[in-house]
């Protein structure tokens, strides 16, 4: 990378220049600058790219880390691994950002240098290319394979660098011509994970949660889960995207609470229906023991002049009942603790207790009807169901656990939004939800 890189940022959904992103490197350290284009900043459909990029002034914003909105468009774990292996060194953040091929970049933001979109790409793979893609993915995972570097470079040339997560995945053109995400298994264990994710998405759709229509191809170590990308329209148009991590102004590894996310949805102008939809996802995650519910696995998409909750994605039932959730609910991150607080959280988010109990029953009825779950996960979910049912039963009899004001001191920060935060929300967590009512 050159010592200084200047990129125009364009919102393709609006067809507007958003501003200018500059990446500079001095003595090995990177520094980023972003300046809004004045026309975008004052436009009725203009919006803050994130809490770290408010449109409060036209002065440039500076950071020694890539701004959240651009982190969402850059590679995550799998893509970063490919880029690093193709270069055989640790890339700069700007190099990671430029490794993403323009047609596949997440969301509606595009990057332009001069007259060229970054980065250009040739033909996007099709479903028929999956055997070749899987073979290349396996090769990149073999550190002692002398061809691992060329395999990683080949996958990047085919436009796979934009994708996150720890396991191999690629963007492909589906049978209908729509851009899809293809998750590739390379082991029997990962194949089981994909099968259970497929089943979980079907359960979500069965109980009324907006979910993409998944397709499961192959079996054993050759299993592939194909999911349409929800940041693209059926005709290929781009849709604005922000992860919950960006929306809350957090970074990888930061702790988070669902009440903060609920409060931030209020602050972002999402309608009341999105509060109910978020609660349903929390309840589904608890019922299915979806412990990998970190902030990159929740998102919003741009609809008109506001953010809306995205379709659900990356729902992975965990057979290990002892594992805690990545995102807590009112500071609880065990299955029993979160289940006990579900109904009270539902009351704050527009879901009456009776309706909440009925929804959890619907989830388990759909689980019983879904044939794709593996025996190990099905057995674990039967045990989780007993634990959740017992917790919901106690929730109706026990004294409410501090709604509001159970916590004191620093323990209150996550759920109430009273502590230090980089999110612009002035009324996060429970406080924001109560003010909405």
From TrEMBL:
Superkingdom field: Bacteria
This protein's GO CC annotations: cytosol
Keyword Transferase: yes
Keywords, ordered alphabetically: Kinase, Transferase
Domain HipA-like C-terminal, chain residue ranges per copy: 162-368
Molecular function via GO: protein serine/threonine kinase activity
InterPro entries linked to this entry: HipA-like_C (IPR012893), HipA_N1 (IPR017508), HipA_Ser/Thr_kinase (IPR052028)
Coiled-coil residue spans: none
Family matches, as Pfam families: Couple_hipA, HipA_C
Region feature Disordered, mapped onto this chain: 391-437
HipA N-terminal subdomain domain span: 16-100
Family statement drawn from the similarity comment of this UniProt entry: Belongs to the HipA Ser/Thr kinase family.
Name the UniProt record assigns to this protein: Type II toxin-antitoxin system HipA family toxin
Species lineage: Bacteria, Bacillati, Actinomycetota, Actinomycetes, Mycobacteriales
